Amino acid sequence: MSTVLPTTTAGGGAPSSVLASAVSKIKWRILPLFVVMFIANYIDRVNIGFVRSHLEADLGIGAAAFGFGAGIFFLAYALFEVPSNILQQRFGAKAWLTRIMATWGIVATGMAFVQGETSFYVMRFLLGVAEAGFFPGVVYYFTQWLPNAERGKAMAIFLSGSALASVVSGPLSGALLQIEGGGLHGWQWMFIIEGVASILLCFVVWFCLDSKPSDAKWLTDAERHELETVIAAEQKEREKSKPGHVSMFSLLRDSRIALFCFIYFAIQLTIYGATFWLPSIIKKMGHYTDFQIGMFNSIPWIISIAAMYMFASLAARFKRQQMWVAIALVIAATGMFMSTVGGPVFAFVAICFAGIGFKAASALFWPIPQAYLDARIAAAVIALINSLGNLGGFVAPATFGYLEQKTGSIQGGLYGLAAASLVAAALVFLTRGPKK
Fold first, then answer.
1. Which of 2-11, 25-34, 166-175 shows the lowest per-residue confidence on average (mean pLDDT)?
2. pTM of the model
3. Where does the record place a coiled coil (predicted)?
4. Measured by CB atoms within 10 angstroms of the end CB, which terminus of the chain is less buried, N or C?
């Protein structure tokens, strides 16, 4: 992770080796911790996808209730994201990120003791409240610790946590589901062990994380001073062009920003549709144990990670970002549509193909709004796109659950995901052109 920065000191001149040393230490100490936190965060968010049949058998939670409960997390997350960020600025990153992790660990553990649909909804909503602010909180943390030139690289490393979590969550949850004893079922042990792991990790966060560079005793005095000087200078430059209050509705009056929100929403629809319902599709392929289902569940995500880096390389070499996003979305649409025309095994293979598209589209999307946005509103708009886009995590599972409850099939939902991806692929070309 070590790097030599082209950044100069506040007074200009040669690149600062002191700053480079400070950034290298930050990357080695903080980034691995954030990646591990993100893995734990993602697992506690999506592990219910592996226990759907168990919740139905033991608690009578049907497909519609399961889909609504899976999705209600994202409503709570969107509602409480901004208040959580405000509180982080008040209490400091160390205290607030530790609090976020501790409370989501407690709620995730409490999922083991739900008794029916109502308590299932309540606990999923509370999990969304508990996790709210984690992702944007980390993004804000980077602005306090890293110069502009290094934040993009740090974000790429941090986001790898969700990809790694997608791979490990299946085998891990599948193995834990086989635990029986103590009067508890395997699905209860899964929630308890994965939730307690997050609680224990919060102690590591408390002892390893510092709120500000000035608190970091592992940096030298010169490194702290250089880091704070450069970041303060960059902040002053941003403040020169900082506008007054910008409301969500004023941002959405820009048709290009509304397009960005829809495109990202369509991408997230497909990602979370696959995340929460893929284990159920795998279960129909044969008489597999929970661990085997978990192993199968990792395959599409492993493929998608490789595809994500392949597409990123192609987009970097052949500079047509919209075209590559559109190609990725067409691949996702094709895979989702093809998953409806054969048996469970063919559906699984088709979703593996779709994974090539929807994960690549997610990674390729962000440079498009970043290239369009005025620096004065970039942070606000990116937060808006992320919040509205993640509501796809509510719509997809809730819709799938309703359809299966009413029709006995999720085929209509898969058609919907394919259609949304195709529409987004067409609309992405409308994001070209000069800034308005």
1. 2-11
2. 0.79
3. none
4. C
